[in-house]
Design a protein that fits this description.
Blueprint (H helix, E strand, L loop, with lengths): L2 E6 L6 H11 L4 E7 L1 H7 L7 H10 L5 E5 L4 H8 L4 E5 L14 E5 L7 H9 L2
Bound molecules: [cytidine-5'-phosphate] glycerylphosphoric acid ester.
């Protein structure tokens, strides 16, 4: 089996998240998604609106996702690559170049983001009401 791995916060799940998961799943035959815990989001400088337990349950319910795991620290990517026998690491191109050091273990792909949608933009629009 060809296993694909990615990570993200997936707050206020939207079409941009769906598109990247759909595209990543199409690169192999199993997709594993690490969902950032609330504590790790604090490390990333993010404060999600939706609590971790709900964000991971939503991601787990997406038909393109085979396994959803907690993402607790930057350094777990290598462990997860070994643990799940991953062949491809993929993520949106906002991270372009940031995970190239994984290329000794896996193929690293950066996919185009979906324009016109982001959690930040959604918060801004909602705050106008
Ligand atoms: N994304 C996208 N298009 C958007 C918004 C997001 O393709 N309009 C993608 C991002 O590129 C990422 C995924 O959706 O691949 C999840 O986005 P975030 O939840 O913002 O993830 P992030 O906080 O960047 O977490 O260790 C890696 C980090 O945990 C990544």
């Amino acid at each position: 089996t060809k296993t694909v791995l990615t990570y993200g916060t997936f707050d206020l799940f939207h079409i941009g998240h769906l598109n990247v998961l759909k595209r990543l799943r199409a690169l192999g035959d199993r997709l594993i998604v690490g969902v950032s815990t609330d504590e790790f989001n604090a490390v990333k400088g993010k404060r999600p609106i939706v609590p971790f337990e709900q964000r991971i349950e939503i991601v787990r319910s997406i038909k393109y996702v085979d396994i959803a795991i907690p993402e607790e620290r930057w350094s777990q990517k290598r462990e997860d690559i070994e643990k799940y026998d991953v062949q491809i690491f993929g993520i949106g191109e906002d991270w372009k170049g940031k995970f190239d050091e994984l290329e000794d273990k896996v193929e690293v792909v950066y996919l185009p983001r979906t324009s016109g949608i982001s959690t930040t933009e959604m918060k801004r629009v909602l705050s106008a009401f």
